[in-house]
Amino acid sequence: MKHVDWRWVLTGSALALAVSAPFLLSGYPYWLHVAIVAYFYAILASSWSLLAGHAGQFSFAHMAFMAIGAYGSGLMGKYWGTSPLTGIVLSTVLAGLVGLIIGVLCLRLKGAYLALFTIAFSEVLRLTLNAELDITGGPNGLDLPPLLATTSRVPYYYLMLTLLLVSLGFMYWLAGSRFGLFFRSIREDEEAAAAMGVHIVRYKVLAFVITAMIAGLAGGVEAHYIGLITPNILILGQMSIVIAMAVIGGIESLLGAAIGAILIQFSLELLRELGNWRLVAFGLLLMLTLRFARNGLIYPLIERLVLYQARRAVIEGREQKAKQAGEGA
Amino acid sequence: MELDVRDVHLHFGGIRALNGVSFTVRGPELIGLIGPNGAGKTTLTNVISGVYKPSKGAVYLNGERISGLPPYHIARRGIGRTFQVTRAFRRMTVLENMLVPAMALHPAGRRQEFVERAHEILRFLTMDHLALEYARSLSGGQQKLLELGRLLMLDPDVIILDEPFAGVHPKLRETIWEFITTVHQQGKAFIIISHDMETIFTLSQRLLVLNFGQLIADGPPEQVKEDPAVIEAYLGKEDE
Ligand SMILES: Nc1ncnc2c1ncn2[C@@H]1O[C@H](COP(=O)(O)OP(=O)(O)OP(=O)(O)O)[C@@H](O)[C@H]1O
Ligand SMILES: [Mg+2]
Fold this sequence. Notes:
- The complex is a heterodimer.
- By secondary structure, chain A is mainly alpha-helical.
- Chain A has one domain (about 5-329): CATH 1.10.3470.
- Helices cover about 80% and strands about 0% of the residues of chain A.
- Chain A is built from 14 helices and two strands, in the order H-H-H-H-H-H-E-H-H-H-H-E-H-H-H-H.
- In chain A, helix 4 (about 85-105) runs antiparallel to helix 10, helix 11 crosses helix 12 and helix 11 packs across helix 13 (about 275-290).
- The longest helix of chain A is centred in the C-terminal third of the chain and has 30 residues, at about 300-329.
- The two termini of chain A are about 25 Å apart.
- Chain B is built from nine helices and ten strands.
- Chain B is α/β, with parallel strands linked by helices.
- Chain B is globular, with a radius of gyration of 18 Å.
- Chain B has helices at about 40-50, 70-75, 95-105, 110-125, 140-155, 170-185, 195-205, 220-225, 230-240, and strands at about 1-10, 15-25, 30-35, 55-60, 65, 80, 160, 190-195, 205-210, 215-220.
- Chain B has a single domain (about 1-240), classed as Rossmann fold, CATH 3.40.50.
- The interface of A and B includes residues 181, 182, 185, 189 and 192 of A.
- Bound molecules: adenosine-5'-triphosphate and magnesium ion.
- Adenosine-5'-triphosphate (ATP) binds near residues 12 and 35 of chain B.
């Protein structure tokens, strides 16, 4: 009997659902908007999980890199007249450069010190953006022209979905390559990794650069989609939401973090009537996850599915061997 | 292969952890390094492997100065070491642990070849069946073996083991002993730190004795055993 591979069935259905969502939601433009924002958070949460969950760099600067992508593109457009596309590309590179600097500055910082340093960096950036009224628009924010010449949300939806899938694909490739192997060895034990020949400086900084660029890219696209970016995106609460999404999804799983982000973004919208109570519920969920499900809530499901298949393969292989042995005897 | 430790000093504030240590390892010697607690054995390992830079003196490998180079560089040059407290990559599988040094050493190498080599080494250490387990699920002894296996994937010329026999069951001691002698016969030099006198006197061809950051003896075990300075400073103390 041929066994159904549930992984492919689930991946296929999820993709089909994602691709057909604009048609299913054609009467509900608001929900399409929610989906776009959810994908945006999914990119942030999964790239943060690559940095924190894989490379072990528990950074609070991820939203700052996102904001560099957004403000960078907006300001380049305002002062240099660059097109949104050029602005997004350049500010993605800029986010990578700042990621490089932060990565180098954080080389000797671990745990709480790294967290405090990156919080301070975000705050400095937020306060600067707030203060420079003439340049950045201060607390009122900066207006950005649309990226696409359309009033429809559908093209943006597919753009953000593509961005999510491509960045996930890239990050999975990275995590499965020697880069991912070195990232995790650094997370586990820097000194031991170095003793095993891993160039820890290079790979730590690289983790910062890559994830900063992904966050910057997502920020640029999102800001041009919304048409406005304000310094409020840099408050600690926003960063905490991204972290919470990744933690609830499964901090060591890129896909878990992405799915966690999407589910949480939709739940937060569905529960809008509850006002701030939904954030309370969300906080409680985070606490419960941390206490009782250290691997998150989504990741164990994914893992079970994958392991289930792997175990089946092992069992089938064993049975086959036994059969062959039986025939040989 | 020649490892030359030349007049190495290292001070931590007021503590003189190493105070002018010199010795040379020529070819695949099997060296034991002993000394009371706090003598500076681990510190010496850390200086040779690049964790610390000596405050004075230097370490040379095949005539080239290696002190001052970062640890990963020294590891790739051919000096492998374990830590006094086991440091496996706990939330990675045994196989992944083994792959790290191989891929760090040969970035362009084929993963499949490394996987095969890893299985070979794991079979030698009788832990091939654990290849896909997380290192954290291994027993303390198995983690020690994993560290030794992982070290072989780095294919170093000099292997420094910081207390490989501490806290291990006699049966595992046999396995580690066998590992050392086999790998030594393949042409690798060993520096083995141990407080297990019986083992280290039998195993090693040459003994270094460190006391208060100074080398007080260097020679064949039989000779070192008789050395009055060693008896007074080291063995005598143990009898108290
Ligand atoms: N990082 C450090 N900072 C300050 N002092 C240190 C440091 N590392 C070692 N020391 C000191 O250097 C001296 C030598 O320590 P070391 O760990 O090398 O001894 P050891 O011979 O390995 O001892 P043991 O047999 O107990 O492992 C000790 O006095 C120790 O306190
Ligand atoms: Mg020691």
